[in-house]
Design a protein that fits this description.
4 helices, 57% helix, two-stranded antiparallel sheet, mainly alpha, 92 residues, 2 strands
């Protein structure tokens, strides 16, 4: 799955919680930047596969956060996020 499609789905599911994500066009693909991943992504350069891996790692971290009840208010949305994550993994 392309980063841009994954980004759009995430914004639909978690509009308020993904405000820190910024999009940048890089080789006609979107690279997702988070404050914690900015340095790693910049080192990756233009490699789209590294951007994809970073995004999947971010989703995994977010799911773990919600599962640990540190994001209780998102519990009702957790099944949709897991479904999105599973679809993204199977489309690669």
């Amino acid at each position: 799955m392309e980063c841009a499609a994954l980004y759009r789905l995430l914004v639909e599911i978690y509009p308020a919680n993904w405000q820190t994500i910024r999009r940048e066009s890089m080789n006609d693909r979107y690279v997702l930047l988070r404050s914690v991943g900015r340095r790693n992504l910049q080192r990756a350069g233009n490699a789209a596969t590294d951007a994809d891996r970073l995004m999947k790692a971010s989703i995994t971290q977010y799911i773990k956060l919600a599962e640990n009840n540190e994001a209780r208010r998102l519990t009702d949305r957790l099944p949709a996020c897991k479904e999105l994550y599973d679809r993204a993994l199977h489309e690669d």
